[in-house]
Amino acid sequence: MRHELLVFDAYGTLFDVAAAARMAATRPDAGRLAEVWPKLAEDWRRKQLEYSWLRTIMGAHADFATVTAEALDWAMEAQGLGTERGLRAVLLGLYDQLAPYPEVPAVLNALRQKGLRLAILSNGAPAMLQSAVRSAGIDGLIEACLSVEEVTTFKPAAVVYGLVEARLGVAPAQVLFVSSNGWDVAGAARFGFTTAWVNRSGAPIDRLPHGPAHILPDLTHLPEIA
User: Tell me, what CATH number does 52's domain have?
Assistant: First the structure.
């Protein structure tokens, strides 16, 4: 089936969420971060997601920039870095300019050459997404960056996936949704999108209803199924 529109999750799918901690760890003044950055990056991402889900359940929404900063505060304290305010500012600045995964620009170009429309649907706040897309040099390839801030709740709430048809006029059956997050794929598939799970780490498939239609190790072969 040929799809009219490909919709990408942003963080962990197009953009490497570990890149901020990894880059900060190479600075001459990195100190202890040089040793603990992989664990900090892991904790940061885990808490970021947990806080988004918990805020949704509690009805206490805050934008993703706030959630990201709160998750970083937890991760830094867990690694004994909680008093390093300068490092905190560096990490948050780098998060707004996350590097894309290596194959991303070429794959997006190939998809556009096939005549496909490309969009992002993300938990990210609008300013965060605009900065990341511009920094990655893919702003000319993406038709629209849709943020959950339009509905003030996070994925995998169905109302978030509804933004695609409301904003871009494409019915769910004509959408291929691409994400590295199994829970995001489940939410999108339940909504009616065809889904592709980018399983970069070789993780087991999530035990959730509505699994992925396609499983990819990265984005390289995406043009073949689009």
Answer: 1.10.150.240
